[in-house]
Write a structure and sequence with these properties.
The protein is α/β, with parallel strands linked by helices. It has one domain (about 15-250): 3-Layer(aba) Sandwich (Rossmann fold), CATH 3.40.50.300. The protein is about 40% helix and about 10% strand. It has 13 helices and five strands. It has helices spanning about 25-35, 45-50, 70-80, 95, 100-105, 115-125, 135, 140-150, 160-165, 170-180, 205-210, 215, 235-250, and strands at about 15-20, 40-45, 85-90, 110-115, 160. The chain has a five-stranded parallel beta sheet, sandwiched between helices.
Length: about 260
């Protein structure tokens, strides 16, 4: 925690957060909710703070001077500015964890999506990028899970990525039911896979967009899982093994 942290609850009628590690199909889940008629989506509002601000924790993507002062005020504006009945936010847990406290989570519905870490790592390799353990994301996901389910005593709501991809209508229906949200059939398909209008992408986002959202942007719906065969690098084996423990723990609660 640091001076740039959210210490008070956010105030909105209904904010749902989907917590994830990278490469775990969370963007496709977010895209599905973007089609819901009563919903506005918020995609990774902490990303610019983690990677580009004066409070950043990584310089993986270089410098972006215009984001130097991007902080909690801007994060809250993104989360609280929609006027729709439902706000659906997707966040990578490690990007937010340094900047939030329990009070931030008290007035939100916190849910999780998990994927087999071997498949997640294979997806990193295809980008191609190689994560630090923090960026692989499963440890931060575990810490967020413990904060939500143990300290705040919120009911666990978990999506397993391949179950979602195999049976999107069933999983989305169950998920909506658990949230008290009406499932809408239009969540299953879209005409354009982008999460933003072309004019809304900022210059410093274009490289990441081409790498991380390529598959989603070429899609017109939830893509079924395909067999993944990958040789995990020796230096990544222990990281993947530790992540498997987190995956198994959370996936036990999967819809």
């Amino acid at each position: 925690m640091n001076d740039q942290s959210i210490k008070q609850p956010i105030t909105k009628p209904k904010i749902i957060i989907l917590w994830s590690a990278p490469r775990c199909v969370s963007s496709a889940f977010l895209k599905a909710f973007s089609q819901h008629p009563q919903t506005a989506i918020v995609n990774e509002p902490f990303l610019d703070m983690y990677y580009f601000s004066q409070w950043r924790r990584s310089d993986r993507f270089g410098d972006c001077e215009e984001q130097h002062n991007y902080g909690i005020t801007q994060v809250l504006e993104k989360i609280q500015s929609p006027t729709t009945p439902l706000v659906f936010m997707k966040e990578i847990a490690y990007q937010a964890l340094p900047y939030i406290a329990e009070d931030f989570l008290k007035n939100t519905i916190n849910t999780f999506i998990v994927r087999d870490p071997r498949e997640a790592m294979a997806s990193w390799y295809r980008v191609p990028e190689y994560p630090t353990e923090e960026e692989f994301g499963f440890e931060a996901l575990k810490q967020t899970w413990e904060m939500v389910t143990q300290k705040l005593q919120q009911e666990p709501i978990v999506v397993e990525a391949n179950n979602f991809r195999r049976s999107p209508e069933q999983i989305l229906s169950l998920y909506c039911q658990r949230l008290g949200v009406t499932f809408a059939s239009q969540m299953l398909n879209w005409d354009n896979g982008s999460l933003k209008k072309e004019s809304e992408w900022k210059p410093h986002e274009l490289e990441s967009r081409a790498k991380w959202y390529k598959t989603l942007e070429s899609s017109r719906g939830i893509l079924p899982p395909t067999p993944v065969q990958v040789e995990i690098r020796t230096q990544d084996l222990e990281m993947v093994e530790r992540a498997m423990t987190v995956y198994q723990r959370l996936s036990h609660f999967a819809l």
